[in-house]
Amino acid sequence: MAIADYFEWTIDFEGQKLAEQLTHLIPTLFAVIGFVVGYSMQSLLVTLEIFGAGLVLTMLLVLPPWPMYNRHPLKWLPASMQ
């Protein structure tokens, strides 16, 4: 068995859409929160830590093939014998 077989994960089209939405929403939200908190505390480090936490959370939610990304599997037509 090849190493690539361990990384063969499938998600459906609706799951791809959800993953893409989360990929845009979470980092943007954490960037805004990080900017506001960092600006109020006058700390660039706090801003970057909050944004980094958002990126880590995004990776944990989006990269693994969670079951929520495969709720609408495609139903293929049976093969026709001709």
TrEMBL record:
Highest taxon in the source lineage: Eukaryota
Keyword Transmembrane helix: yes
GO cellular component term of the entry, any: signal peptidase complex
Keyword Acetylation set for record: no
Entry keywords, A to Z: Endoplasmic reticulum, Membrane, Transmembrane, Transmembrane helix
Transmembrane domains' residue ranges: 22-39, 46-66
Gene Ontology biological process terms, A to Z: protein targeting to ER; signal peptide processing
Membrane topology: Multi-pass membrane protein
One Pfam family cited in the UniProt record for this chain: SPC12
Name of the molecule in the record: Signal peptidase complex subunit 1
Organism: Lichtheimia ornata
